Amino acid sequence: ALIRLPGELVFGPSRCSRATLVDEDRWTEIEGMSVKAVLPSAKEKVLVVYNVNFNPMEMNYETYFTLFRTSSSGSMTNLGQMDQGTWSVASSSA
């Protein structure tokens, strides 16, 4: 099925401007991968479609992806699990 949306309702695509090394065990925003959609009311819904390409530098790796929602007051909510996010990938040796 093909869904056509008005241009003012579409955000992205976003691309990383450079390779990023994350070496801390905490949620870290990757430069260029942040998208902000402002909704007129809290009753509005958003369809988020994303694709991530991950290129590990070693054979032993773990990576986690998640989405955050920010309220009008500025508080952030992780839409996945706090420790694993919405998606995780690991090598068989991790």
Walk me through what this model shows:
The chain is an all-beta fold and 94 residues long. It has strands at residues 62-65, 68-70, 76-78, 87-90. The protein has a two-stranded antiparallel ribbon. A hairpin with a 5-residue loop joins strand 2 (68-70) and strand 3 (76-78). The protein is globular and about 45 Å long. It starts with 61 loop residues before the first strand and ends with a strand. The model has no long low-confidence stretch (mean pLDDT 80).
Task: Provide keyphrases for this structure.
single chain, 94 residues, mainly beta, globular
Averaging pLDDT over every residue, what do you get? 80
Strand content: 5-15%
Question: Which strand order spans the largest sheet, edge to edge or round the barrel?
Answer: 1-4
Radius of gyration over all CA atoms, rounded: 16 Å
Work out the number of β strands. 4
Number of helices: 0
Gap between N and C termini, in Å? 39 Å
Helix-strand pattern: EEEE
Q: Outline the low-pLDDT stretches.
A: none
Short description:
The protein is mostly beta strands and 94 residues long. Helix content is 0%, strand content 15%.
Question: What's the SSE blueprint?
Answer:
Elements: E1 62-65, E2 68-70, E3 76-78, E4 87-90
Antiparallel strand pairs: 1-4, 2-3
